[in-house]
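Appendix B. Raw example, untouched.
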Amino acid sequence: MFMRLLIPSWRFFDITGTIPGLYVRVLGSKDFPDQWIDILHPPDLHWHSLLFNPLGNLHHTLCNTLDNLIQHPEDQYSIEVIDQYVRYYLVAKLQCQGGNLYQFKVTGSNFDADQRNEEDLIISPETFL
């Protein structure tokens, strides 16, 4: 359990590559405009996050799944995991009702000379919630 404190993450030594982003939009709803909403936010860290951090683990899992999806866009399992998280976010966080159309997109950002370049990599088809 305490090994995470003593041994740094292997990603610490990585060269920063494409940084994933996850956006969602609800189509045809009067409560939500047809604009993309960023839903990939790192959780707030507290002292007890060193011992028990389920939201941090979820965020880490999503980032790894998005990295895998960027490298292998045909991976249906990764798409399904992201789609399930988007559905959870729409219902639990945005309190979106069933029957609405939604769509998500995966973006990749690179930093060149202190400038962020964001590119749409995968846009899902419109799906009913």
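End of appendix B.
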